[in-house]
């Protein structure tokens, strides 16, 4: 059986390391997992050309929205956030679309006993932010303040309206004030976009838990600021492991501990 991850760029993806570790743990010696470079425009033809040995696909940027159009069925979570990161082959050779990112965020937060958050500060408003917001809605989120460099993306605002969560947009320069009232801070700014506010947030007397979606160059300046204040810090690598574990279960029908994937990803990352 075959599975793999598609996206662009894809060379940096930790999915092959994680999924292969899961297969080894489960004794699935006849399963393979590879990576393929793919832009959104090329996705329909690539998927159509996969033979019946392909059982599942992990999808990263920029394919999550395009994947919805290829699916026979779309799970409610993927439909709600407007993107799927998983395609699973159906018996009729069609595809079912899922979003396991929301599960990944929820479980990563739960691992650090973050089980409630009424007021949330989010840095960024893209696809990662939408998955995180869908997860924190289950934690009782009622208000969201965005710290952004431009405007909140329309699809993100629409999701919050659908979830009945009040939201507001603010310049990044206001995050120090916003963090004082937050029960949780979520950073989804690409690259090192949050570095500029890390020093300012060190001035806040009590910092809430931080979900840092970025795991490159860990710990980030923002993660160090929150850790120094004694606040729980949740890495995007933990979210990645949990969402990957659910992908493995959806594709193979076998459950695997997320710790297996996290150990593999952490080991691979430290060697880069």
Automatic annotation (TrEMBL):
A Pfam family assignment: SDH_C
EC number(s) on file: 1.1.1.25
PANTHER family from the UniProt entry: BIFUNCTIONAL 3-DEHYDROQUINATE DEHYDRATASE_SHIKIMATE DEHYDROGENASE, CHLOROPLASTIC (PTHR21089:SF1), SHIKIMATE DEHYDROGENASE (PTHR21089)
GO cellular component, one term: cytosol
Pathway(s) the chain acts in: Metabolic intermediate biosynthesis; chorismate biosynthesis; chorismate from D-erythrose 4-phosphate and phosphoenolpyruvate: step 4/7
Keywords: Amino-acid biosynthesis, Aromatic amino acid biosynthesis, Oxidoreductase
Residue span(s) of domain Shikimate dehydrogenase substrate binding N-terminal: 5-87
Protein name (Swiss-Prot/TrEMBL): Shikimate dehydrogenase
InterPro entries xrefs: Aminoacid_DH-like_N_sf (IPR046346), NAD(P)-bd_dom_sf (IPR036291), SDH_C (IPR041121), Shikimate_DH-bd_N (IPR013708), Shikimate_DH_fam (IPR022893)
One of the protein's GO biological processes: aromatic amino acid family biosynthetic process
Transmembrane spans: none
Residue intervals of the SDH C-terminal domain: 236-264
Gene3D superfamilies assigned to the protein according to its UniProt record, in alphabetical order: Leucine Dehydrogenase, chain A, domain 1, NAD(P)-binding Rossmann-like Domain
Any one GO molecular-function label of the UniProt entry: NADP binding
């Amino acid at each position: 059986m075959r599975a793999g991850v598609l996206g662009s760029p894809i060379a940096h993806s930790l999915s092959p390391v994680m999924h292969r570790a899961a297969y080894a743990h489960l004794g699935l010696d006849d399963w393979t997992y590879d990576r393929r470079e793919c832009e959104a425009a090329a996705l329909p033809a690539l998927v159509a050309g996969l033979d019946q040995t392909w059982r599942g696909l992990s999808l990263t940027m920029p394919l999550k929205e395009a994947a919805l159009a290829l699916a026979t069925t779309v799970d409610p979570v993927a439909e709600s956030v407007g993107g799927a990161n998983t395609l699973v082959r159906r018996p009729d050779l069609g595809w079912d679309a899922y979003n396991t990112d929301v599960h990944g965020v929820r479980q990563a937060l739960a691992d650090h006993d973050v089980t409630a958050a009424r007021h949330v500060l989010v840095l960024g408003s893209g696809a990662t932010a939408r998955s995180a917001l869908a997860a924190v809605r289950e934690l009782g989120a009622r208000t969201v303040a965005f710290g952004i460099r431009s405007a909140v993306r329309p699809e993100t605002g629409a999701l919050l309206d659908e979830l009945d969560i009040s939201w507001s947009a603010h310049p990044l320069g206001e995050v120090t004030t916003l963090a004082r009232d937050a029960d949780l801070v979520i950073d989804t700014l690409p690259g090192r976009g949050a570095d500029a506010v890390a020093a300012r947030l060190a001035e806040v007397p009590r910092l809430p838990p931080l979900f840092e979606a970025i795991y490159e160059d860990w710990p980030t300046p923002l993660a160090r600021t929150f850790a120094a204040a004694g606040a729980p810090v949740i890495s995007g690598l933990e979210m990645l492991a949990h969402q990957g574990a659910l992908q493995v279960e959806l594709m193979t029908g076998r459950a695997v501990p997320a710790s297996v994937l996290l150990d593999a990803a952490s080991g691979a990352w430290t060697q880069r």
